[in-house]
Design goal:
The chain has 580 residues and is of the alpha+beta class. Helix content is 20%, strand content 30%. One of its GO terms (molecular function) is dipeptidyl-peptidase activity.
Length: 580
């Protein structure tokens, strides 16, 4: 480690791309002659503000140069920004430019969160020879499933808030320079961000008025490609794990909007990475974290997981440096000899190292839905148990898209006021008649649930297309119902998001709802609860129930939903139970 913490700083350094566009970067080098291994952040969120998660001064103290670059069409950089389109080639060109500089040893790493994680994986997909390691945090593996859509449903709250504020309003000066936009356009955007609920409710979705004329054409392209088609396949990471030859330390959060992709990147690279060394060089850590800043140390939503859960307390920066020490400096610090997986177990509120994911010792147990035909709301007679159902009447509810079930926490982004994310009490949601509630009796002992979770739903609808949602909830002894994880399936996507097909009204179909994963100890006296409904708005767009292209629909059609739970159709949630 250098004795001095002084920095050599060069701002707005031009980095040429293969098509002649210049991207601009700030370069931070430790004091001394060098050369140095370099860590790179390629960000759409303004390079002058992107001095986290690794501070350049702290990086210099640890012997690393840092390059922070505005991606194409963002802030100081030239060109047109279009989500994902240029990140593979621009990432490749930037890594190789850095490696060729006299102040670089030829070893380059990348780091950062969210879209900055996407710039890492897309660069890795391009296979630049000098990219030695990455640390992608809270990011996805597929920019259709688990980023823009989930289970076939459009992730409305995220897509609208992210595009309006972080992608468009925040970058207005660059857009204005290229498009000669008026101040009136800026004021209209500002008003849309300050009053976001009307944007969430706007119909039809494809006519959202704030983003056309070159401001964010990609938003309308997302809506024009609801299926997993070639538009999305060109950027997919998980389809190319076998060709990627970069070690990755994956960092995720139990309440992060990209948790599913974080886990799939780890698993895919662990199994299919290009070489044995690369397959071994994959790590995973998941905390009880949000997408974005926490309201305070140890706080996720309105729940407190303890100071020990905070990234600063476990020295997440230090983990980055140990990872880059190994791969960029060749220091054998033992990091690869440590267990590859580290998880925070909620409920017990402890960190635990594991040798694999999912846990080999966890046993998948089905918890079946039961009722006397009236599981509607918290006041209904829905129950949950490991005993399979016999002859039971179904549960029925009316899904009215004009009055959807409101979102209450969960994995959200990117406006904490309109979309507060994390763990929140769900009882306000559970009083609705269009929410089915199935709960175990108070538990006689602690039960740990750690691993992937899914709901198998046997259901019929009066519509030709609709949605079904599911949520796993931990109910404390005082009645507080803390959400753990949730999911959705669009009926037309029940078999495939690449080839959607309508359903026959009244016919019973099997739906699998992926709730991704969690790690939680349901304490003695608590209850395990599952909520079933057909909307979670504005986290997801409202299914109009018409069977039409939802982005083009201006009206709604109510649907009668029937959830079966009997010997022939045993609807249930599958929980990975870890033996005590």
């Amino acid at each position: 480690m250098p004795a001095s913490a002084s920095l050599q700083v060069s701002t707005n350094v031009a980095v040429p791309m293969r098509d002649g566009i210049q991207l601009y970067a700030d370069v931070y080098l430790p004091e001394g002659e060098g050369p140095f291994p370099v860590i790179l952040q390629r960000t759409p969120y303004n390079k002058t503000l992107a001095r986290t998660p690794l501070d350049p001064l702290k990086s210099a103290e640890n012997g690393f140069g840092v390059v922070i670059q505005d991606t194409r069409g963002r802030y100081q950089s030239e060109g047109e920004f279009y989500t994902f389109r240029y990140e593979q080639d621009d990432g490749y060109d930037t890594v190789e430019w850095i490696a060729a500089q006299p102040w670089c040893t030829g070893k380059v790493g990348m780091y950062g969160a969210s879209y900055v994680g996407a710039t890492q994986w897309l660069a890795a997909k391009g296979r630049p020879p000098h990219l030695a390691a990455i640390v992608p945090r809270i990011t996805a593996s597929n920019y259709h499933e688990g980023w823009t859509y989930q289970g076939g449903a459009f992730e409305l709250g995220f897509n609208v808030s992210w595009t309006l504020l972080q992608l468009t309003l925040a970058n207005f000066q660059n857009l204005s320079n290229r498009l000669d936009l008026s101040k009136d356009r800026q004021q209209a955007l500002l008003k849309a961000v300050d009053a976001m609920d009307p944007a969430f409710s706007h119909l039809p979705l494809k006519t959202l008025p704030h983003l056309p004329d070159g401001m964010a054409e990609y938003y309308y392209d997302w809506l024009a490609h609801p299926a997993y088609d070639d538009y999305w396949k060109q950027w997919c990471i998980e389809d190319h794990h076998a060709q990627i030859s970069v070690p990755a330390y994956n960092i995720g959060g139990w309440y992060d909007i990209f948790l599913g992709g974080t886990i799939r990147n780890y698993l895919g690279m662990r199994e299919h990475g290009a070489t044995e060394e690369i397959r071994r060089g994959q790590k995973l850590i998941i905390g009880p974290w949000l997408h974005g800043a926490s309201p305070g140390p140890g706080i996720t939503g309105d729940h407190y997981f303890g100071l020990g859960s905070d990234p600063t307390v476990i020295d997440l920066d230090g983990l980055h440096f140990r990872w880059f020490d190994y791969w960029l400096k060749g220091i054998d610090n033992g990091i690869l000899d440590e267990p590859p997986v580290r998880i925070f177990v909620m409920g017990d509120n402890v960190w635990r190292d594991e040798d694999e994911w999912p846990l080999a010792r966890a046993e998948d147990v089905n918890y079946y839905f039961h009722s006397e035909g009236k599981a509607n709301s918290l006041n209904g007679n829905g129950t949950l148990s490991t005993q399979a159902p016999a002859n039971e009447p179904p549960d029925v509810f009316l899904y009215n898209p004009a009055d959807p079930v409101p979102t209450q926490g969960g994995p959200l982004c990117c406006n904490a006021y309109f979309l507060p994310n994390g763990a929140y009490d769900q009882r306000e949601i559970e009083v609705r008649e269009d929410v089915l509630v199935y709960s175990t009796p108070p538990l006689e002992r602690d039960i740990e649930v750690t691993g992937p979770i899914s709901v198998t739903l046997w259901a019929a609808t009066s519509a030709t297309d609709t949605d079904f949602t599911a949520k796993l909830v931990d109910v404390s002894t005082c009645g507080c119902a803390r959400n753990l994880t949730d999911g959705i399936i669009r009926a037309r996507c029940r078999e495939s998001t690449a080839a959607p097909s309508p359903v026959e009204p009244g016919q019973v179909y099997r739906y699998t709802i992926d709730l991704w994963a969690t790690s939680n100890v349901f304490k003695q006296g608590h209850q395990i609860r599952v909520e079933i409904s057909s909307s979670n708005f504005p986290r997801f767009d409202r299914n109009t129930n018409t069977g039409n292209v939802i982005a083009e629909d201006e009206g709604f059609k109510p649907a009668m939903q029937t959830i079966l739970h009997n010997a022939q159709y045993p609807s249930h949630i599958t929980l990975p139970i870890v033996p005590g």
